[in-house]
Amino acid sequence: MGNDFHVVPGREVRAILDDNQMATFNTIRQAYLLHHKKESINPHSYFFRFPDNPGNRVIALPAYLGGPVDTIGIKWIASFPGNLSAGLPRASAVLILNDAETGLPIACLEGAAISAARTGASAALAAMSLRSAQEPARLAFIGSGVIARAVLGFLRVAGFRVSEVSCYDLDQGRARAFVADAAKASDIAVRQVPSAEEALESDVVVLATTATAPYLPATTRLRGNQLVLNISLRDLPPELICSAANVLDDVDHCLTADTSVHLAERLSGGRDFVTGTLGDILTGNLRLDTGRPVIFSPFGLGILDVALGSLVLAEARRRLTSIRIPGFCTV
Ligand SMILES: NC(=O)c1ccc[n+]([C@@H]2O[C@H](COP(=O)([O-])OP(=O)(O)OC[C@H]3O[C@@H](n4cnc5c(N)ncnc54)[C@H](O)[C@@H]3O)[C@@H](O)[C@H]2O)c1
Predict the structure, then answer these.
(1) How do residues 40-82 score in pLDDT, each as one tens digit?
(2) Whole-model pTM above 0.85?
(3) Is residue 215 within 6 Å of ligand 1 at its C-beta?
(4) Cβ neighbours around 4 below 10 Å, total
């Protein structure tokens, strides 16, 4: 039996994502709701590491998402931080999709752009759902790479109100470029700040670094009305996690791989510091008491890649911009 297999290269993926930002945001929202209803299978990610080069890794994220998506997939995403100095992206990925009825592979899509978009949309969804204050937020980024840019873009798409943007990055050149691009895209004030501590004074703080272990001091404190989007997962000391309200995308996933919340579980000897999941918030099953800072820690679920990859594939087929390989599985 033959089947068509579609390859969607990065340029086509990017064009589709750029033209479908609101649809991307809604797709991510729907994926979280389906996951909350347990219409998903999302095993733990597999971290492939290199003993001689511990900075590099490749992660496999297999997932099935039900409902109208009804698709199986796996993202295989590499992180090679040394690539940046060679002018190459740190993260690169493919996303394979399979038909849920037959198991047959149906597509291979460039996966890094999809991964960045789903991460940005997820962070924006959390910001819209978790910030209780009414006034526009002072927004800060610690780390100004691909993910920080995606988060900023989707906060705009979602209509998140911001009064100013600041940015701190260990690499001052990258922070300068982020500030320049963000300033071009809007008329609010955008500035570079000299330290992570200064960035942490903002109302909403996005952590998007490549830190592998907490570097912010254990004495770091947040104000009651602050929201931290803990995207890079390993910047915050576990003591700070234990003092805040913690919303996770998936508890079992987040409490692995030496994330700050994983360290908090070890430090506190349990999971009492976990307040709930984004699914609990989206369905109205959890309301946060105001007065405590809120930290959103998303492990980054494969179902989000499958959901957004399915949207991109459908659009690429409609536009005839995928490369179609008839009878791919015929031998
Ligand atoms: N949770 C999720 O769903 C999810 C999804 C995708 C990526 N991520 C994570 O997000 C992070 C950012 O990814 P990216 O693609 O933007 O990476 P990137 O390499 O494009 O950018 C990272 C930036 O962080 C800066 N940086 C590193 N350490 C720093 C520190 N201690 N203080 C300030 N700046 C620092 C670097 O100079 C760089 O500019 C990575 O850790 C990645 O694993 C998380």
Answers:
(1) 999 999 999 999 999 999 999 999 999 999 999 999 999 999 9
(2) yes
(3) yes
(4) 15
